[in-house]
Structure prediction request, 259 residues.
Amino acid sequence: MTYEFVDVKNTGRITVVTLNRPAVMNALHKPAHFELHEVFNEFAADPDQWLAIVTGAGDRAFCAGNDLKWQAAGGERGWNSSGFGGLTMRFHCDKPIIAAVNGVAMGGGFEMALACDLIIASENAVFALPEPRVGLAALAGGLHRLPRQIGLKRAMGMILTGRHVSAREGLDLGFVNEVVPVGQALNAAERWAAQIGQNSPMSIRASKQAVMDGLNVSLPEAIAAQREYPAVREMMESADYVEGPRAFAEKRPPRWKGK
Prediction:
């Protein structure tokens, strides 16, 4: 499909999604949200696409959050059932999604990044949940994901002040996986994706589902239930489940089928 506010490129097994509103620092309005909803629906449903990377057009911004100027001018605010940017309420996608943060990630933009499995940030990246400064609150998941990812006191220090956090501090706090030079966030994310892609996609999906679903229950309950998770059962019934040990025994690279 052709989109007005998003660029989508498939490279092998990897889908690269680029927020394309650089004039407003890739801030999102309702039409962009609905496009992203469709983009990630297609990615989730495509068996040939195993990983996704989301980034922003240009070097200034990943996503500056909600387009407040659009809203102030009378534009209707809202997004689809998958949440801000098609990601923050997308709880059942077991394929890995990497955020390549190439500049500002504010408000909903930061919430999108937090909803991804990895965050790769350029040195000029800046993160914040500044909603209280404009009379709002980070209700697209940031108030809940950030404490779970970096701990309560650290998260409250960011949430209550709305302060800006650099990429290096984000790495120290634990929500950033790697910091790279300006202009290299996408390349680094593709490197991470290639490394993940060396593994069985069935195992990757099973692992992600077990981790995410297991966070909702106690440790004993998570361990007891993990073999019943759909992605885990699919892994154990897949051709990849046979191919991995066979390739190891035959001392050759595995030939993953993803089914």
User: Anything to note?
Assistant: The domain at 6-197 is CATH 3.90.226.10 (2-enoyl-CoA Hydratase; Chain A, domain 1).
